[in-house]
Amino acid sequence: MSRPTPVWIAPSVLAADFTRLGEQVREAQEGGADLIHVDVMDGRFVPNISMGIVVVEAIRRVAQIPLDVHLMIVEPEKYLADFVQAGATYLTFHAEATPHAHRAVQRIRELGAKPGLALNPATPLSFLETLLPDLDLALLMTVNPGFGGQKFIPGSTQRLRELRALRDRLNPACLIEVDGGITPQTVTQVSGADILVAGSSVFNLHSSIQENIKTLRENYALTG
Ligand SMILES: O=C(CO)[C@@H](O)[C@H](O)COP(=O)(O)O
Ligand SMILES: [Fe+2]
Fold first, then answer.
1. 2: pLDDT confidence band, cut at 50, 70 and 90?
2. Where does substrate bind (predicted)?
3. Every domain of the chain and the residues it spans
4. Which homologous superfamily does the CATH classification assign to the domain defined by 8-221?
5. Mean of the pLDDT values across residues 30-57?
6. Which residues, judged by CB distance below 6 Å to any ligand atom, belong to the binding site of ligand 1?
7. Catalytic residue flag (residue 179)
8. 134 an active-site residue?
9. What does the DSSP assignment read for 1-36?
10. Ligand nearest to the CA of 183
11. 1: pLDDT strictly greater than 60
12. Residue 79 gets which letter from DSSP?
């Protein structure tokens, strides 16, 4: 499989105006978004609570592009079927969230969705070795999960390089997504990522959503 060209942009609705969620999703889609990223937080795996199944369902009704659901929850295996049924195209859980990561990957696939595995900034990349061949997505956290609007962790650039080498060796079809602190400035430090998740820099800057997506893509392209 070839890499997405140009890079895919996945606006994170965590930073959207929730009083106008449908409108903001449509605007992101019309503004060139390739996926809609939905951050699900349970107050246990991460110290914050965000949104769940009904919100994914509601977004599914307005979005025509795939939904990229990022589960930051413990025991994700309990909810995989619910999130797939709600409309998740990519369904990603965290390495530390379950003792049965391989089973969860298989289950997501059986349910008809594309499995993803997320790595925290301190999670060794070696965790991926056995799972990579079965994944459609590897999500590299470039901040600690739990909140939008945080600062990009600079060491992520080197980790991304190493992750790319691992991916190229074990499963070239697997997409690499970076998530957290991606802005028009930091996007130059994630060269080689296939998908850029961006919340604050898509929904919270003064320019339009369309303009923000365009700027991210243009600045990323400068990385060659
Ligand atoms: O998963 C997460 C945070 O845990 C992210 O998806 C954030 O929602 C991205 O927000 P910004 O850092 O782009 O504001
Ligand atoms: Fe996320």
1. low
2. 12, 70, 146-149, 179-181, 199-200
3. 8-221
4. Aldolase class I (3.20.20.70)
5. 98
6. 12, 14-15, 37, 39, 70, 72, 143, 145-150, 179-182, 197-201
7. yes
8. no
9. -PPPSSPEEEEBGGGS-GGGHHHHHHHHHHTT-S-E
10. 1
11. no
12. T
